[in-house]
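WARN retry 2 of 3 for item q-0093 after timeout on previous attempt; input resubmitted unchanged.
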Amino acid sequence: MRGSRIKVVHLSSAHGADDSRIFWKECLSLAQAGYDVCFVVPGDRPCRRENVEIVTVRRRSGRLARMLLSTAAVVGAGLRCRGDVYHFHDPELIPWGLALRLLGKRVVYDAHEDVPRDLLFKRWVPLVLRWPLSRLIAGVEWIADRTLSGIVAATPTIARRFPASGAALVQNYARLAEFPALDASKRPHGRTVAYVGGVTPERGAVEMVDAMARVERYPDARLVVAGEIWPDWLVGKLAGSAGWRRVDYRGRQDRAGVHAILAQADVGLALFHPVQSYVESQPIKLFEYMAAGLPVIAADFPGFRKIVEANGCGLCVPPLDTAAIAAAIEWVFEHPGLAQEMGRRGRELVQRTYNWEREAESLLRLYDRVLADAPARRLVTGGDTGVR
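OK item q-0093 returned
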């Protein structure tokens, strides 16, 4: 079997044990390929699930405690797992990844986001520190690019940041195995709008709720929201909106909860603010709505238009325009036949192209390359070593 007797240890200090990309996609795909997979993560209790060993460390509250203490705990627990390959998922773990490399370990960095650019827009970072921190992280990633055994990039934009390593592009598409074919004619058609994911200002939380108050022709329409609201002040702002009375807030959901919500919905929302990191993003919610056979109302970004409108599987609207969002929701309700056809085209597109099953092969090829490499490689200060 491909990964027989090879121990892979995934490390994360910032994600959860139920993480869609790390556990349900990468860990499961590696386990199914024959690797012995361990996932070390902050959590409540260790367990073995889907043939993956989950090792937990103490949860830490606060960003600083997570970056300083959780990272050390995760790496320490990972070393006790005695892995052949260490695969980490958070930028704060890069220094630990370099240290593991110095110890002669095979180490893979999974870049989920364009961190140097994202830091320029993080509200929690003081404005005066954003540019210096962005440059610092860019420098650390430059070293990682030329030192680690392999780099995984979640989008083409991120992959371009790692030219020396020839980063493996492993895009965060939907798992077809999670979304069996649904008969759209049997949906309840209760005029339900769905949003699944982090509930933040930049992801359009305020605009989605405000738009529901403008869906006047359908007073029975409701918005089902699944995800954690952050920051804390947003809870009060949303609750004070006129549209909140039409929101069914479910909180954070496991995968089964997400599937149940999408199976009952009529349309899915992906209304990110026009921040550069989102304009070029590939949000998993977009592909999961499509996999579930839902038409999509997405932000009017070039990349989203190329997927959604060019393939006739939804509508794109200005994400800050609540009137336009409301009008798009009403259009879906007014044209159930056309909306159903949009959902069908979206699902077919995921089946052909935007599915994890295809991306998993890129991940497995990277592991083939990493395992063919010598276990140790010295740190370099410039140039491409030519060793992957």
